[in-house]
Amino acid sequence: MSPYQAAEDLSLFGTDPWWLTLIKAVFCFAFVLVSVLFAIVWERKVVAWMQLRVGPNRHGPWGLLQSLADGIKLMLKEDLIVRRADKAVYVLAPIVATVPAFMAIAVIPFGPAGNEISIFGQRTTMQLTDLPIAMLYILAVASVGIYGIVLAGWSSGSTYPLLGGLRSCAQMISYEIAMGAAFASVFLYSGSMSTSTIVEAQADRWYVILLPVSFLIYIVTMVGEVNRAPFDMPESEGDLVGGFNTEYSSIKFAMFMLAEYANMITVSAVATTLFLGGWRAPWPVSTFWEGANHGWWPMLWFVLKVQLLLFFFIWLRGSLPRVRYDQLMKLGWKVLIPVSLVWLMLVATVRTLRNENYDFTDIALYVGGGVLVVLLLSFVADMFRDRGKAEQEAPAAPPGFDPMAGGFPVPPMPGQELPPVPRRRPRRERELIVSGGPDTASDGSLDGKEASDG
Question: Which pLDDT score, from 0 to 100, does residue 115 have?
Answer without folding.
Answer: 67
